[in-house]
Amino acid sequence: MKRIAIITIIILLILAVGIGTAIIYILVSPNLDKKDNVSYIYSTGESFLTNLKDGSHYVKADILIEVPDKETLKILEQNNYKIRDEIIEILGDIDQEDIKDKDFKKNLRNKLKEDLQNLLNIDKIKGIYFNEFIIQ
Fold first, then answer.
1. Calpha distance 85→91 (Å, rounded)
2. How far apart are CA 91 and CA 76, in angstroms?
3. From CA 71, how far away is CA 73, in angstroms rounded?
4. What whole-number distance in Å separates Cα of residue 34 and Cα of residue 117?
5. For a pLDDT cut of 90, what percent of the chain falls above it?
6. Rounded to two decimals, what is the model's pTM?
7. Which residues have CB under 8 Å from 111's CB, separation 6+?
């Protein structure tokens, strides 16, 4: 009798582990198929150095752009001259009041992302990153 009880408990444990594993696999498996973790970083080239709106201060920035796929990366590469020009325009439009805002860099990232996406007719820029950012 004890032997049947032990065998029954072992079979139930094996079934419980098997069912648990199947449930976890079903729940996690769709997330593994997504390629959200893959991204490509595009360098805009040399650092930007331009005067601010007031003319007496300068900004130096090295900017990287994160995109989700190679097709978008190719678009960025083909339009580097447009991207650099747009970034220079945006950096040159910064004034002293903008710098005082506590969310200045966050707002600048959002502005760069929005304007570059509009310029290139894409909506796939995942992030804008400053490798270097100096205002003097």
1. 10
2. 19
3. 5
4. 23
5. 62
6. 0.72
7. 90
Strands (E), 3-126: 40-43, 48-51, 58-67
Whether 65 and 116 have beta carbons less than 8 Å apart is answered as yes
Q: For residue range 75-128, list pLDDT tens digits in order.
A: 999 999 999 999 999 999 998 888 889 999 999 999 999 999 999 999 999 999
Structure tokens at 54: 């007031």
Q: Where are the strands (E) in 16-91, listed by range?
A: 40-43, 48-51, 58-67
Measured CA distances, 8 to 11, 12, 59, 66, 87 (Å): 5, 6, 74, 55, 70
Give φ, ψ of 79 to 5 degrees.
-115, 30
